[in-house]
């Protein structure tokens, strides 16, 4: 149901403001953003929608259509405490805003999303950006879309406790439609690059959820930080241009392989952006295949399910290339397919995957 309609049912009055924000798929550039590197995400036509109404006092009431069994959750501004599930992303937003001395008051919030959580499509960033957009309008806050993305990252890092980089909120806040956002995560310089006319994107959810706030993602980030420390630099971006093979040999395993992935992945992003600009879809697809191999072997964030989906997709003539997307440890695979064949290719891959693994994969894009 539309959250504006649901809002009136839940809170007994019409909503004053509606806002939304898209999820994202990362074309290439996995696990490079928190090392100051390059990424290439695209917004997708799956989004988080919110409706908001003002209320007197400091109380916030929030309801999610996707978590209807939780009922309406409440807290007071200035008394946000993590550990309450999906509402932590709302609490985190108000915690960060009040910490900046932004003037906000109590509100009611209804949420509805078709970005599936755990699929690696930035569902949390979409929620944060949508809520920030609604609050910006409601209280006439002055931050622009870039500052909004930085605030959303602070929500993840400082309140939720997920050590993510800037890519997801930047993509949700700034990525254009029918294009990807070439982003330098150090300078935050960004550029729109349109998809080649003979290609389209398709996404298959493996059915294995992932979570950034804990587990392997946190470990990989710590490994990258440790490798940078051993190399005497602030971030692995600082050794971009040096020979990845030499650095891999100079560091103990697995740090050497982690560095090799980050450096070669950054170079693949630059090459992929050039391939999109020159409409070389075949080259872009080969780079995606190389990216998946590196993520599976050097960075070790793939799973048997993601490897199987990627292998099935990469064996098809109507797919230029496929790779895991969204950080790995479960989630989704992205297909860079020939225009007009994305849906049929993804459905065929999902069907064969189900027959060979017993798992159910879901085609999310094209819708």
The total domain count is: 2
Uncertain stretches of 5 or more adjacent residues: none
Order of helices and strands: HEEEEHEHHHEEEHHHHHEEHE
Derived from helix and strand composition plus strand pairing, the structural class reads alpha+beta
Instruction: Describe the oligomeric state of these chains in a short phrase.
Output: single chain
The residue fraction in helices comes out at 40-55%
Number of strands: 11
Radius of gyration computed on alpha carbons: 21 Å
Query: What is the overall number of helices?
Result: 11
Distance between the termini: 18 Å
Basic shape: globular
Largest sheet: 7 strands, mixed
CATH architecture field of the largest domain: 2-Layer Sandwich
Q: Could you report the average pLDDT, rounded to the nearest whole number?
A: 96
CATH class of the largest domain: Alpha Beta
- Residue share in β-strands: 15-25%
And the CATH topology of the largest domain?
Ribosomal Protein S5, domain 2
Describe the structure.
- By secondary structure, the chain is α+β, with helices and mostly antiparallel strands.
- The chain has two domains: 3-191, Ribosomal Protein S5, domain 2 (2-Layer Sandwich); 198-365, 2-Layer Sandwich (Alpha-Beta Plaits).
- The protein has eleven helices and eleven strands.
- The strands form two sheets. Strands 1, 2, 3, 4, 5, 6 and 7 form a seven-stranded mixed beta sheet that branches. The protein has a four-stranded antiparallel beta sheet with strand order 9-10-8-11.
- The protein is globular, with a radius of gyration of 21 Å.
- The mean pLDDT is 96.
